[in-house]
Amino acid sequence: MAFLRSLTLIWPGLPWVWLRGSRAGLVLACAFAICLDLAVATTWIWTEFVDLRVTLGVWTAVAAIWLIATVSAVSAFPPPLTNCRDAATDRLFTEARDAYLARDWLAAETKLQTLLTLAPTDGEAQLLLGTLLRRAGRFEEAKKALEMLARSDTGLPWAHAIQRELQCLARDTHEQTDGSSAATLPLNAATKDHRAAA
Q1: According to the model, what pLDDT value does residue 83 have?
Q2: What's the average pLDDT block by block, 10 residues per block, for the chain (198 residues)?
Q3: Are 123 and 160 in contact (CB under 8 A)?
Q4: What CATH number labels 87-193?
Q5: 64 within 8 A of 32, measured Cβ to Cβ
Q6: Where do the domains of the chain lie?
């Protein structure tokens, strides 16, 4: 896996785009692609229209961008994302789980948010947060958190549990909308009866 990660150094900006989703890395990768395309076009396609010195200048710019970007990427190569917990994050998860089981939603959410600040790739904590939000009746937030976890690599070991939570979320949302429409139905019927009597 380390070899595959180091292959991203071949293209400037790619380590940051591929491994971290960085916008600055995307801009650098696109700028390098444009320079490389221009160099290829001036060398093999527009040979009659572009002076040789311009072509050499473009190739020099491509080489300089590649060299500077590669050296800076090697010096600040993004470390691999870890999924393991240390003692502090493990303690936070245990406290959050215990608060969740005690139905102390506020304490559980606070502990989980702190844990996810320290370890943003902890899939189990993300799943527990999504479940907690569903149980607390914050359905939109729960759906967003669970769908984001389902799309990420950290959600792969929890795919079955995520699908089950999304099904429970759909059921709870449906029950809430049915309950609110049932609560308004007698009111509407009473209004119609009152108008008929008048």
Answers
A1: 56
A2: 74 81 87 93 88 92 91 73 73 94 94 89 91 93 91 84 93 82 48 44
A3: no
A4: 1.25.40.10
A5: no
A6: 2-75, 87-193
Cβ pair 135, 127 in contact under 8 A: no
- pLDDT, residue 182, reads 55
Q: What are the residues whose beta carbons fall under 8 Å from the beta carbon of 80, sequence distance 6 or more?
A: 1, 2, 5
Using CA atoms, how far apart are residues 39 and 31, in angstroms rounded to an integer? 12
Tokens for 38, please give them. Answer: 């221009």
| Residue 111 backbone phi and psi in degrees, to 5 | -65, -40
Residue 66: other Cβ atoms inside 10 A: 16
Q: Which helix (H) or strand (E) holds 175?
A: helix 159-197
Instruction: Give the distance from CA 21 to its chain's centroid.
Output: 9
Q: Which pLDDT score is estimated for 192?
A: 46
Q: How far apart are CA 55 and CA 147, in angstroms?
A: 49
Here the tokens at position 33 are 């692609």
- Report pLDDT for 176: 84
Does residue 134 contact residue 169 with C-beta atoms inside 8 Å?
yes
Say how far residue 6 (Cα) sits from the centre of its chain: 22
Long-range contacts of 94-99 (CB under 8 A, 24+ apart): 96/125, 96/128, 97/128
- Quote the pTM value: 0.54
